[in-house]
Amino acid sequence: MRVSRDVMAKRHDQILSQTSKMLRRRGILGTNLADLMSAAGLTHGGFYKHFDSKDVLVAEATARIFDEINQRFEARIEADGVESALRAYVTDYLSTAHIENPELGCPLSSFGPDVSRVEGPVRSVFTDGISRTLDLVMLGFSGPPALRRERAIDLLSALVGAVSMARAVQDEAIHNDILDTARRRANRTIEDAAIDAANVASNHHMHIG
Amino acid sequence: MRVSRDVMAKRHDQILSQTSKMLRRRGILGTNLADLMSAAGLTHGGFYKHFDSKDVLVAEATARIFDEINQRFEARIEADGVESALRAYVTDYLSTAHIENPELGCPLSSFGPDVSRVEGPVRSVFTDGISRTLDLVMLGFSGPPALRRERAIDLLSALVGAVSMARAVQDEAIHNDILDTARRRANRTIEDAAIDAANVASNHHMHIG
DNA sequence: ATTATCTATAGATCTATAGATAATGC
DNA sequence: ATTATCTATAGATCTATAGATAATGC
Questions:
Q1: For all residues of chain B together, what is the average pLDDT?
Q2: 3-state helix, strand, coil in chain A (%, to 5)
Q3: Closest Cα to residue B138, out of B191, B72, B85?
Q4: What is the dihedral of CA B19, B23, B29, B30, to 10 degrees?
């Protein structure tokens, strides 16, 4: 029942893809190899020809999650510019679709606490992913790097916290309250930063002129 | 080997206490009955004389966690007033002690995502706990209720997100960057709200006088 | 007589491995 | 000849239960 290298590569990819979804839907401990291989259309016995252990799989899948999210961000920057990309990132982050489909969303709000309980490759891959996401969010702001970084951390913290809370609460009124408030806050943060940038530019122009 | 009702009540309490810590340290799936009963100084066989199931235990322990946190907040309000209590809450939340000892801290940042994956009593108890925490944080702000609620949600989201991220990252520089930024932001939020309140009070006074 | 705890274990589930099978790739 | 997958299973672990034991409480 051996398959060609091509088919095997596709299956390897499929296992990683299913893992990247299951991790965000069920968490690290809730992700089990039997369900995973079944979702990939295989039996669990074949797993170890693809990965050395569950831990290695989780680390690789986590790297893929951050790669995909960051690449999506970069593509939007290319297409519409940094400000527009940041707005789209925030709108998507606080959307109902993101709340209801964690398997396609940000790993910070879906299994960040799981990662804080492990050591090794998973943890360092996650650290690197957060670092690169912060670098991208920074690009959406203008001004000196320290200020841009501060704004990026504040914005991302607010997004992660709001989605974590909104997903945990059952009460629809509180749920909507959290998301609506987070949307207003995020928009205000972005608008204020844009106004600051415009004022700095205009003052700078006066000094020159 | 039967024990007195008094001793049994103390052991029941001890099981709940250990669970409240283990939930925050290891998450729901990471909390197992054998380790739990062992931590409570008992063998695992006796568990079901105390609780009907793991699920019931988790729900009761979660209720206890929120009760303790909210009672601590209320006690500080009694002792030092609402503004001071809110400042202390924020300082504690973003402290190194809280980052390193999740088992004594806020359940939102330690196992909020775990809760979003379950239904039933655990979820509703968690929802109620968040609701009551928001009510307490609101007290720390002045102004119309809608504004106070908005500020409470914004502040709590920022705290939850910052601690989730800080715990997940391994890199010390990023870790400190996140916490320092969150501390500045939280203090600014509280200061700005206080200034707003003072201005409103002073304007109000002028109109009267 | 009742019952809280203990030891032991059932039954399910999880990661990982062993051996057979059949297709690939040299 | 090599090897990716399959079936089967080892060994560990988890929730939950059964039966024995000994102390409580009526």
A1: 95
A2: 80, 0, 20
A3: B85
A4: -90
Supply φ then ψ for residue B116, to 5 degrees.
-65, -10
Q: How far apart (Å, rounded) are the C-alpha atoms in residues B185 and B189?
A: 6
Cβ neighbours around A204 below 10 Å, total:
10
Query: Å between A65 CA and D11 C1'?
Result: 33
State whether B167 and A108 contact (CB < 8 Å): no
Q: Which is nearest to A109 in space by CA: A34, A37, A33, A182?
A: A182
CA-wise closest residue to A40 among A64, A22, A26: A22
pTM over cut 0.70: yes
Q: What is the spatial distance between Cα B64 and Cα B47, in angstroms, rounded to a whole number? A: 18
The pLDDT of residue B196: 79
What does the pLDDT look like over B73-119, one tens digit per residue? 999 999 999 999 999 999 999 999 999 999 999 999 999 999 999 99
The span from the CA of B204 to the CA of B176, in Å, is 42
Q: Position A122: which residue type?
A: V
Closest listed residue to residue A66, CA positions, set A135, A128, A153: A128
pLDDT for res B209: 39
**Of the candidates B82, B103, B96, B84, which has an alpha carbon nearest to the alpha carbon of residue B25?**
B103
Q: Which band of pLDDT confidence, cut at 50, 70 and 90, is reported for residue A193?
A: confident
Asked if A123 lies within 8 A of B168 by C-beta distance, the reply is yes
Amino acid at A82: V
CB proximity B120 to A under 8 Å: no
| Maximum C-alpha span of chain B | 77
What is residue B208's predicted lDDT score, i.e. its pLDDT? 45
Separation in Å, CA of B28 to nearest CA in chain A: 10
Helix ranges (DSSP H) in chain B: 5-26, 33-39, 54-80, 82-93, 96-100, 107-115, 121-139, 145-168, 172-208
CB contact under 8 A, B111 and A112: no
Q: Answer yes or no: are the C-beta atoms of A172 and A182 closer than 8 Å.
A: no
Give the separation between CA A134 and CA B101, rounded to whole angstroms.
Answer: 26
Tokens of B209: 């006088």
Return d(Cα B190, Cα B55) in angstroms, integer.
38
Q: Quick check: A27 pLDDT over 80?
A: yes
B143: left (phi > 0), else alpha (psi -120 to 50), else beta? left
A166 to chain B: closest CA residue = B116
